[in-house]
Amino acid sequence: MVKLSVNLNKIATLRNARGGNIPNLLQIAIDVQKFGAQGITLHPRPDERHITYKDVYDIHSIITTELNIEGNPIDKFMKLVLDVVPDQVTLVPDSINAITSNSGWNTIRYKNFLTEKVHQLKNIGIRTSIFLDPNPKLVSSVAKIGADRIELYTGPFSLGYANNKLNSINPYIITAKEANKHHLLINAGHDLNLENISFLIKKIPNIVEVSIGHSLISDSIYMGLEKTIQMYLKKINQFYIKDN
Ligand code: PXP
To answer: Which residue ranges in the chain fall short of pLDDT 50?
Structure first.
């Protein structure tokens, strides 16, 4: 089964707009698990404009499913994750002012930097994943860096999906095959939604985890969180259920 990890940054953004505790992020983290999601993703940015560093500690102490923390491994971030020890850390090359993550790593240029960070994380038992553009040429350097997984940056897939599904998925299929060759497991995330998620998973059946925030939280405004999560789970696992 493909795991669904729900990114809660949008909930934190809404809460921070008023400075109080509405909506209650911790309650939502508990509910997201209760409604069937297999994990929670948090992406604390250095300016803490969405998820705060305190949120990371609070959520880590109450959830029972998998915690994935994403971010650029600057000193402040590394200190946080080495202290919290989540199940997984996804390294993302986001600049401080980026509205959202907008590219994967150049794993050739940043090989030494990433190798050092991955070793620090793996030394204390944290699974590591590297956010990657759909470029098969970068995969062997991820293996050399020593990471456990790649997270395919699905922004370009989502953009191209409306015009030409097959063209938009092709580089991902090739990159996923390369990852298989190097024994790297595959996560995927960014701009995934109820329209495009089934196609992605049908074409890349070895994806093990998807991390979804913006669309899922937006859908829940109309459908409620429980129904929305169940709809995503159904779409994510429909091929698995049929084939087994
Ligand atoms: N993966 C990474 C590395 C991200 O930065 C984000 C956004 O925070 C996501 C996945 C989830 O993207 P979206 O909010 O578009 O579903």
So the answer is: 242-244
Cis peptide before 46 (omega within 30 of 0): no
Q: What residues pair up with 39 in beta bridges, in sequence order?
A: 5, 66
- DSSP codes joined into one string, 8-35: -HHHHHHHHTTTS--S-HHHHHHHHHHT
Amino acid residing at 85: V
Which residue in 50, 60, 70, 151 is the catalytic one? 70
Total structural domains within the chain? 1
From the candidates 50, 66, 178, 190, give the one annotated as an active-site residue.
Answer: 190
Q: What is the pTM of this model?
A: 0.96
The answer to whether 190 is a known catalytic residue is: yes
pLDDT digits 0-9 by tens, 54-84: 999 999 999 999 999 999 999 999 999 999 9
The answer to whether the CB of 211 is under 6 A from ligand 1 is yes
The finding on whether 43 has its CB within 6 A of some atom of ligand 1 is: yes
pLDDT in tens, 101-110: 788 999 999 9
Residue 206 sits in a domain whose CATH number is 3.20.20.70
Burial of 211 by CB count in 10 Å (0-12 exposed, 13-18 middle, 19+ buried)?
buried
Instruction: Please indicate whether residue 190, judged by its CB atom, sits closer than 6 Å to ligand 1.
Output: yes
Residue 21: which domain range? 3-243
Note the pLDDT of residue 240.
63
192 Cα: distance to centroid of ligand 1 (angstroms):
9
Question: What does the longest C-alpha to C-alpha distance in the chain come to?
Answer: 49
